[in-house]
Amino acid sequence: MEVDVYSVADRLPLIDETTTLATQAPKDRLIAVLDQVEMRVERLRRDTVRIEEERDSLLSTLDSVKHSDLLADISECDKDDIKRYADRILARALTVEVAVRTERDSQQEEALHQVNMFIDQLVMSVHEDTVVAHTRCQTYMNACTSQPDPSSGTDRNFETAILGCTLDDQKRVKKRLQGLLDYIAKMNVTMYS
Predict the structure, then answer these.
(1) Cα(150)–Cα(29) distance, integer angstroms
(2) Contact assessment for residue 56 and residue 93, using Cβ atoms and an 8 Å cutoff
(3) pLDDT tens figures, 49-72
(4) Sign of the alpha-carbon torsion through 53, 59, 65, 67
(5) Measured between alpha carbons, how far is residue 110 from residues 96, 114, 165, 166, 168 in Å?
């Protein structure tokens, strides 16, 4: 993953208060600096979200390795080595904390809590019955899109909860659900191949 790298000169817009040749009024010069700072803040937020997504993807991959059917085909000693290696990487990955904070009111907080409960229950059901989990995940995904898949329907309770969330949270949840759908699809391929 590539993260934008800024030179020191690009990192901080400066206000040159000594320039008498400036053609812009002081207010306009200050607004121009603030515009640059705002663009950098938004770029930083996008980069941070991208890093969060990569971290989640890595954690998902580690989980799939730890639960892989391939472990059944190796010796106990090798299995222990693989699990220790995965646990070491997991412990290292968990030392990385990246977060973009989204301002929410109390109703948005409650809606996000409900959405997270739905998704947590879905994740718990993945190892029990991947087909049912996939179907439920697709109904959640349909609640997040303006053009739902007509073959699987929409979970109305999830839809009500997700519509109460902020736009940033809705985007993040949709990406989580897509990641979960991809994960379930990989599990199904592994199980049935």
Answers:
(1) 53
(2) no
(3) 889 888 888 988 898 888 888 898
(4) negative
(5) 27, 6, 8, 11, 15
Distance CA 135, CA 56 (A): 22
CA distances from 136 to 13, 37, 82 (A): 49, 42, 32
Residue 53 CB: number of other CB atoms within 10 A? Answer: 16
Q: Is the pTM of this model over 0.90?
A: no
**92 alpha-carbon distance from chain centroid:** 19
- Distance in angstroms (rounded) separating the CA atoms of residues 108 and 166: 6
Separation between Cα atoms, residue 188 and residue 134, nearest integer Å: 10
